[in-house]
Amino acid sequence: MGKVTGTKGYVGASTAIAGITQWNLDYTVDPLETTDFSASGVATYITGITRWSGTFSGYKDGAPKNLGASVNLWLAEYPSAGNIWKGTAFITGIHPANTFDGIVQYAYDFTGDGAITVASTA
After folding, report:
1. Are 72 and 88 spatial neighbours (Cβ–Cβ below 8 Å)?
2. What are the domain boundaries of the chain?
């Protein structure tokens, strides 16, 4: 099986967000139980609504995003050989960090608003 490096991934909100070194996406569906008398004691389900949320983080490079901001978010695995996830999301958390001997870092939490799409960048 082929492998894809993450070294050229990126996070964008209209344009690439500078300084980002990591992103994480949770894309889930709610299972809705449909078990009835004919199921013979075995649970059955159908798919319900989907949800997506996640985080991205890295070094502070430019003005931070605002809490509550709505952004057109792009999460790319690799610009020329991977997937890119796109959708509108709200910034739901901001976590700045700083040490006396390090680089100022920012981490962001987001929650999707509406559908997310995935496409190959190959």
Report:
1. yes
2. 10-120
